[in-house]
TrEMBL record:
Compartment(s) where it occurs, according to its Swiss-Prot or TrEMBL record: Membrane
Name of this chain's protein: Predicted protein
Range covered out of full length: 620 to 933 of 1002
Origin: domain of life: Eukaryota
Family that this chain belongs to: Belongs to the cation transport ATPase (P-type) (TC 3.A.3) family. Type IB subfamily.
Originating organism: Hordeum vulgare subsp. vulgare
Length: 314
């Protein structure tokens, strides 16, 4: 393609909300044979909602929710936002002004008065969060987080968790002072176009893959809904780029689509990195493409644009 053709294609992309950083990336997209999708926030809406909270320790449900919300208040994860929202509604439903503006304004103020003080907060990448509340350790996250801290999950809680996971929900486990307290189930619906895009890629001869830090059962349930057979689950943030490289070893051209900080090494390692608009700045920086509309159809638009530009004018 001539420089003019590349310029024209870049302009057409931009008009559709597909921003490409340079002619090389535009050219590489035509040959993609794998598209790897991050799950949370990429295939799914990233608008997580708590669907269940269950205490297994005799702790009062209200106290349980306060504990969890206090620990998650410092986390940026979409799961944390869902937990806070749920706890807030549990405690304050019916006691708040009906005007939305008033509510949004008062929320922060109310939350700050009501949350417990969390000290030494830290995020454990791919696993959850930890902190101290009332000088006792709080752990919130997946099984791996519980295991590595020696917290045993009782069998009835484990079977409840498995049930959630088989229904495409993410379960988060809560321990206080080394004892298991309870769990919450969180749903994060697929983007409405996700399944159509996956089907479209298959028709183009491209192999879709789902890549996530979430557990196998949840990942497989979501993959089934969206029509993806190739799933890589329980991948730690550092491992996402390795998955890209392992596919490249066979000579494949790999596109990665993601939104999170976790995804940025994989976006950089991919032949074609595509960041979802509205995703984190670090992901956007690492990518070759930015899909401004946050619509997965633009993955196909980007590949089509490259194919057209480089086949027609060669
Ligand atoms: P993904 O690749 O799907 O974006 P992450 O690597 O961000 O997943 O997280 C992997 C898993 O770690 C989550 O599914 C969840 O079980 C746990 N986790 C991460 N952050 C949190 C948090 N703030 N609260 C509870 N659990 C968390
Ligand atoms: Mg994500």
């Amino acid at each position: 393609a001539t420089p003019t053709a590349v310029m024209v294609a870049t302009g057409i992309g931009a008009n559709h909300g597909v921003l490409v950083k340079g002619g090389d990336a535009l050219e590489r997209a035509q040959n993609v044979n794998y598209v790897i999708f991050d799950k949370t926030g990429t295939l799914t809406q990233g608008k997580a909602v708590v669907t269940t909270a269950k205490v297994f320790s005799g702790m009062d449900l209200g106290d349980f929710l306060t504990l969890v919300a206090s620990a998650e208040a410092s986390s940026e994860h979409p799961l944390a936002k869902a937990v806070l929202e749920y706890a807030f509604h549990f405690h304050f439903f019916g006691k708040l002004p009906s005007s939305k503006d008033g509510l949004e304004q008062r929320k922060e103020q109310i939350l700050s008065q009501w949350l417990l003080e969390a000290e030494d907060f830290s995020a454990v990448p791919g696993k959850g969060v930890q902190c101290l509340i009332n000088e006792k350790k709080v752990l919130i996250g997946n099984r791996a987080l519980m295991n590595e801290n020696g917290v045993s999950v009782p069998p009835e809680a484990e079977s409840f968790l498995v049930d959630l996971e088989l229904n495409a929900k993410t379960g988060i486990l809560v321990a206080y002072d080394s004892s298991f307290m309870g769990l919450m189930g969180i749903a994060d619906p697929l983007k409405r176009e996700a399944a159509v895009v996956v089907e479209g890629l298959k028709k183009m001869g491209i192999h879709p893959v789902m890549l996530t830090g979430d557990n196998w059962r949840t990942a497989q349930a979501v993959a089934k809904e969206v029509g993806i057979e190739d799933v890589r689950a329980e991948v730690m943030p550092a491992g996402k780029a390795d998955v890209v490289r392992s596919l490249q070893k066979d000579g494949s051209i790999v596109a990665m689509v993601g939104d999170g900080i976790n995804d940025s090494p994989a976006l950089a390692a991919a032949d074609v990195g595509m960041a979802i608009g509205g995703g984190t700045d670090i992901a956007i920086e690492a990518a070759d493409y930015v899909l401004v509309r946050n619509n997965l159809e633009d993955v196909i638009t980007a590949i089509d644009l490259s194919r057209k530009t480089f086949n027609r004018i060669r």
